[in-house]
Amino acid sequence: MTGPDVLGPPGPRPFAAPTNGVHARGIRRSFGPVHAVQGIDLDAPPGHVTALVGPNGAGKTTVLLVLATLLKPDAGEVRVGGFDPVTQAGEVRARMGWSPDVFGLYDNLTCREYLEVMAAAYSVPKRARPDRAAALLHLARLPEKADAPVHSLSRGQKQRLGLVRSLVHDPSVLLLDEPASGLDPRSRVELRDLLRRLAGEGRAVVVSSHILSDLEEVADRVVFVDAGRTVGQHAIGELPAARSIRKYRLRALDGPALRDALERAGVGWVEAGHAGLDVEVLGGEPSAARLLAELVAAGVAVTAFAPLGGALEATYLDLVEGQR
């Protein structure tokens, strides 16, 4: 999703860089006898992409609805952009962009009209709305759809339109629930680039997704939730699994030579068919780097050496298992 600047030309931001992101402590929310959220803490500082990770039913969407002023918590303290979503909802909405997993679109409006209506709802000056809509359509790679009705878009196109709609009022906090849903691989890469750019401008970006590989590439921080509770918060570079035992998959031009070299190094392996060999490495990336260096020094023509699953996925699974 590339194109002209959404929020104006390069240069100073149109408002002062935010001093507050998202801070939540002890959020609780029940729906009758169902305790959807039982104590979630979350910090999303400005200038960072914070990933919210957990299985279906963990409470991620409920928490995002609370942050977006759309659901009142039963308990807990919440600040979005420095304001309370319960008592200062208007202040929060003026600073917060919200893109839900499933959102309603005005199907009979054109894409241009839809974005201009959203701009009007956020009190964007009338004469600025056409340019803002055009810039957002370029960002979503939909300029040729400007005069097409929204109902004619594919699911992925509608997802992109809904995402850029959340930027129409230049928010300092972005809340994105499954933003990659329905996107093709190219659009997912462009989404990652866009989120990094928006965080680089000083915004606090909170993104929930099941695609952990995408999150690991874009996020600075991660908040793990399970069964309605926070089970861990970490900087991506400090995930516990990155320093523990991890599985790696190896391939080489000469399979027997690879096996012999691993045996000499005292490393066991498991056959993975034509995919290669799976090994367990204790000590994270430094140990993996040493093993690769040893194999190359032994003359093994290694063609692939990569972890099976990312540190984000491994840490999440370890945390969840520890809670059960």
Report on the structure:
- The protein is α/β, with parallel strands linked by helices and 324 residues long.
- Residues 2-18 have low confidence and may be disordered.
- The longest helix is centred in the middle third of the chain and has 16 residues, at 185-200.
- The protein has two domains: 22-235, P-loop containing nucleotide triphosphate hydrolases (Rossmann fold), CATH 3.40.50.300; 240-322, Alpha-Beta Plaits.
- A hairpin with a 2-residue loop joins strand 1 (22-31) and strand 2 (34-44).
- The chain contains ten helices and 13 strands.
- The protein is globular and about 70 Å long.
Task: Summarize the structure in short.
This protein is α/β, with parallel strands linked by helices. It is 33% helix and 24% strand.
Q: Strand percentage, roughly? A: 15-25%
Query: How confident overall, as mean pLDDT?
Result: 86
Fourth-level CATH superfamily of the largest domain? P-loop containing nucleotide triphosphate hydrolases
CATH topology of the largest domain: Rossmann fold
Pattern of helices and strands: EEEHEHEHHHEHEHEEEHEEHEH
Report the C-alpha radius of gyration, rounded. 23 Å
Straight-line N-to-C gap:
41 Å
Subunit arrangement of the protein: single chain
Count of the separate structural domains: 2
**Shape field:** globular
Major β-sheet annotation: 6 strands, mixed
Structural class: alpha/beta
Going by CATH, the architecture of the largest domain would be: 3-Layer(aba) Sandwich
In percent, how helical is the residue content?
25-40%
Kindly provide the name of the CATH class of the largest domain. Answer: Alpha Beta
Find the count of extended strands (DSSP E, 2+ residues): 13
Report the total helices.
10
Poorly predicted parts = 2-18
The strands making up the biggest β-sheet line up spatially as: 5-6-7-3-8-9
